[in-house]
Design goal:
Elements: H1 11-75, H2 79-105, E1 107-114, E2 122-129, H3 139-172, H4 175-189, H5 192-279
Antiparallel strand pairs: 1-2
Helix pairs in contact: 1-2, 1-5, 2-3, 3-4, 3-5
Length: 280
């Protein structure tokens, strides 16, 4: 009886080789989502810094809105009209304080833009910001902004009192005192620009630092992404190399074993044939 065919003896090695190939492909496939997750984290950092820049721009826009409304309040007549403008200023101040708080601690900022369109009066945009450790470098500018908001609120209250006094004198027909009160209001309004200049300077400094940080972060993220891509290619190469080298070795072992078994099988077949002829 002849021994088992040599081809059947390499079955285990082939199964082992197939298992190695499957494990290698699974590892390569698994690397892709892992690296994608890392890149998504980098993109999230970049997006968060863009949100910080947006909030800085929104703070500066809020300061300009408050300044224009303060001067509009000074030219308003009538209690109802002045109350509407004052409420608008106070709303801007509350939003400004909220936006500053978001830069400190994180949160959501909402921007409302008047469109004056027949189909839509306003456009609303909301962004979410996540405070980071590196953001602490800008806390000084944020702290310097807050006291100015309290001073503006006090100035608005004072201006409102003076406007009420002016309107009362106008109603009473006291032209002399009304003129004096208007001079007092004009002198008071001359104190307003330096206040907003200092406030805008702090906001501009915050915006400038945010823009610089955004540029630096974009450069850092580009380098990190490039590094991750290179690392991914190296790991894939190592995985493929780790599959090919053992695979080649196994195939050589299988080929050598098959040749040895085939030679042994052939020798045994010849020996059997010679033994059968000798028995005849």
């Amino acid at each position: 009886m002849l021994p088992e065919r040599p081809e059947t003896s390499s079955g285990r090695r082939i199964v082992w080789l197939l298992g190695l190939l499957l494990a290698g492909f699974a590892l390569i496939i698994g690397l892709q989502p892992w690296f994608s997750g890392l890149i998504d984290e980098l993109d999230a950092k970049s997006a968060n810094e863009r949100v910080r820049l947006f909030i800085g721009e929104e703070i500066l826009r809020g300061i300009h809105n408050i300044e224009s409304d303060v001067y509009r309040l000074a030219t308003s007549t009538g209690v109802k009209s002045q109350q509407l403008v004052e409420n608008k200023i106070l709303g801007h101040l509350d939003k400004l304080r909220h936006d500053i708080g978001v830069l400190k601690q994180g949160g959501s900022v909402r921007q409302v833009v008047d469109l004056n369109l027949p189909a839509q009066d306003q456009m609303t945009r909301q962004v979410d910001y996540r405070a980071t450790a590196k953001a602490s470098a800008y806390v000084l500018e944020l702290i310097e902004l807050s006291p100015w908001l309290d001073e503006i609120r006090a100035k608005v209250a004072t201006l409102r009192v003076q406007l009420n006094q002016r309107d009362a004198l106008r109603t009473a027909g006291d032209v002399t005192r009304q003129s004096a009160k208007e001079d007092e209001i004009n002198f008071f309004l001359k104190q307003i620009p330096p206040l907003f200049i200092r406030l805008s300077e702090n906001a501009n400094r915050l915006l400038y630092e945010s823009q610089n940080r955004q540029s630096e972060l974009e450069a850092e993220l580009a380098m990190e992404k490039s590094h991750l891509e290179r690392t991914k290619l190296v790991l894939i190469f190592l995985v493929v190399f780790g599959i090919l080298v053992p695979g080649v070795l196994v195939m050589r072992q299988i080929t050598a074993a098959n040749q040895e078994l085939r030679s042994a099988w052939e020798e045994m077949r010849i020996a059997k044939q010679e033994a059968e002829r000798a028995n005849l």
